[in-house]
Every structure is written in structure tokens, then in C-alpha cells.
Design goal:
Structural class: alpha+beta
Order of helices and strands: EHHEEH
Number of helices: 3
Distance between the termini: 39 Å
Largest sheet: 3 strands, mixed
């Protein structure tokens, strides 16, 4: 399995500047190799990780699940 480390703050800032979603980037990364994407904070500590699926259908399922969970967390903050 290939590990890919990403500094979260820089990554999300770049997505914002490019007006694209992380799911579009993830879709471009899908190939035969298994990949674990590890998001790091500015101090190189692991924030979270994501096992990239090997097909677009599973990626879409993950996107939907993430959106639902994110919406629930946001509603809990209000």
C-alpha cells in the first residue's frame, strides 16, 4: 500500500483557490495501487486518514457518507 501524506491546511487552501473538490482529486488518483491518504496538521500530526477505494462507485459512496456525517456535525454545532 502506498502512503500519501498531505498537509491539510495547504491542501484545502489549494482546493479553494482552484475551485475544485477533494473528491475530484481523489477520483484522479484511483488506479490499481492501494493508497492511504494521511492528512497532517501544520505540526505534522495525523488529523485523519482515508483509504482511497479502487473504483469510482465506492468513491461516490464515500463522498455521500462524508457529506451526511459532515452535515450532522455542523447541525450539532448550532
Amino acid at each position: 500500500m502506498k502512503n500519501i501524506q498531505i498537509k491539510a491546511s495547504s491542501f484545502f487552501e489549494l482546493l479553494k483557490m482552484k475551485d475544485t473538490s477533494m473528491w475530484e482529486i481523489f477520483a484522479q488518483m484511483i488506479d490499481a495501487d492501494k493508497k492511504e491518504i494521511i492528512f497532517l496538521d501544520d505540526e505534522e500530526k495525523v488529523l485523519f486518514n482515508y483509504l482511497l477505494p479502487n473504483n469510482l462507485e465506492k468513491l461516490e459512496e464515500d463522498r455521500k457518507q462524508f457529506s451526511e456525517e459532515y452535515a450532522e456535525k455542523l447541525s450539532g454545532l448550532n
